[in-house]
Amino acid sequence: MSLFGIGGTKKVSSELTLGDKTVQVPKLTPVKWKALFEVVDRLPHLFITVLSTTGQDDFASTLVAAAKLAMDEVAKIVAVLSGLEEDYVLENAGTDEITDFLVAVVEKNRLQSVVKNLKSLLPKAPTE
Q: What is the pTM of this model?
């Protein structure tokens, strides 16, 4: 399975380029997850805000504002996952490289499958 229908059955690269540096696509161990959650701050709230916005004009302006705020958060996430400095990511990595890197992390660690399995562990809502 692939993220957002992208990638299909292609093999995930174990190395990618961010700026001028080659980085490994990491395995998300419990230690890496902990470090990741320590830097994620506003990103979940930004996603909820954008997704709950109604109206075409409001959605577009909210999306642009959220994208500006989210860039620092994304740079922190990429820095933690790649081992690069946050400033290096902000100044040298292209948005295409950042996106490719994050997609590769999701696919390598089968995060869609992990989410599905975690949902199955949650208690079912009682039905009347």
A: 0.70
Please, which pLDDT band fits residue 116 given cuts at 50, 70 and 90? confident
How many other C-beta atoms lie within 10 A of the C-beta of residue 95?
9
Judge contact between 106 and 46, C-beta under 8 A: no
Token pair, residue 40, equals 């994620």
Residue 80 CA, distance from chain mean position: 12
In the chain, the percentage of residues whose pLDDT exceeds 70 is: 83
* Rounded Cα–Cα distance for residues 70 and 77 (Å): 10
CA-atom Rg of the chain in angstroms: 17
Residue 21, beta-bridge partner list: 18
- For residue 23, give the 3-state DSSP assignment: strand
Under a CB-based contact definition with an 8 Å cutoff, are residues 23 and 15 in contact?
yes
